[in-house]
Amino acid sequence: MYPAGSELFEVERLLPDELILASGKRLVGFDTRYDRIRRDLRLLSAPDEVRAWSKQFYGRELPLCEIMSDRYPLLIFSGDVGTGKTVTAEAACDRLAREAGRAAMLFKLSTRVRGNGKVGQMSSLINEAFAIITKEAGKAKSAFLIIDEADSLSAARDGAQSHHEDKVAVNTIIQKVDDLRRLGGRVLVILCTNRGHALDPAVVRRAARIERFDRPDAAEREQLIRMDYEGLGLSNESIRDLVDITGPQKLPKRIGFTFSDLRARLLPEALGLAFPDRKLTAAELLMAAQSLQPSPAVEDA
Ligand SMILES: Nc1ncnc2c1ncn2[C@@H]1O[C@H](COP(=O)(O)OP(=O)(O)OP(=O)(O)O)[C@@H](O)[C@H]1O
Ligand SMILES: [Mg+2]
Q1: Is the pLDDT assigned to residue 3 strictly greater than 50?
Q2: Which domains does the chain have, with CATH numbers?
Q3: What are phi and psi of 145, to 5 degrees?
Q4: Tens digit of pLDDT for each residue in 204-222?
Q5: 20 in helix, strand or coil?
Q6: How many C-beta atoms surround the C-beta of residue 115 within 10 A?
Q7: From 19, 31, 36, 83, mutation site for ligand 1 pocket: most ligand atoms within 8 A of C-beta
Q8: Residue 259: CB within 6 Å of ligand 1?
Q9: How many angstroms does the Cα of residue 186 sit away from the middle of ligand 2?
Q10: What is residue 150's predicted lDDT score, i.e. its pLDDT?
């Protein structure tokens, strides 16, 4: 879409989007989480509505309207690998666009934004990306930017130069998020990270909300298993066994499976044992669960 800038974005999509809607529907706990964050999202993305609310109930624009429009349009999604930060961010943006009843562009900053490590290059790429996003958020449209910091900003932290480069990039992001406040909530940034504790305090301070993501607990694993394995005819007992075996273990000590371990690793592993000769049984699912090691936890998630 942008010949010069297209390298910048891994995803550039018009919302609402049916594929994103469908993937959101398959996320355990999405509705609860979305309800929790939508108030913030709405307050951030619709300062005009806050003014209208103020006029309706108080007959004028109260000072709080100014305070609200001064907030930073930034959410942080923080947590372990494979716990749904990226998919939730996309689905939340999609639902927000639907509820607002106006089109929006969804951008995801590409890992290529690191550039080749030359000092200043990453910052100028980030500047370029924000310029495009700002331009896109016109009167009729809003824009969402997902910064998937996980691999891009943390991958090359070794080496003094890249460390410096990271800092410059973070400063640029801070400055750009500050600037976004002038747009009256038409651009929202969601920063996804699995290094929550390593995030710059200046970024954290600006976040309107920090949403935590964790590995699924037993109830969530059960919900996922019942949804994904629907139709396989698993008994309640087999489901209970699967929920147990995919949870944290004491001896030997082991953490529990992530959402993505359950979906993208356990299922194919088990299916490989049955396909194409026979039906998939609980025994194969249990065997696969026993043989797999969950993704290692990110230390400071
Ligand atoms: N709440 C959930 N319910 C069902 N499946 C989920 C959920 N969260 C994540 N998943 C599955 O896990 C996969 C990985 O999710 P996602 O890429 O959003 O993780 P992430 O937290 O961004 O991980 P990373 O830190 O590695 O980037 C998704 O494609 C989805 O299939
Ligand atoms: Mg991610």
Answers
A1: no
A2: 6-213 (3.40.50.300), 218-291 (no CATH)
A3: -125, 120
A4: 898 989 999 999 999 999 9
A5: helix
A6: 17
A7: 83
A8: yes
A9: 24
A10: 52
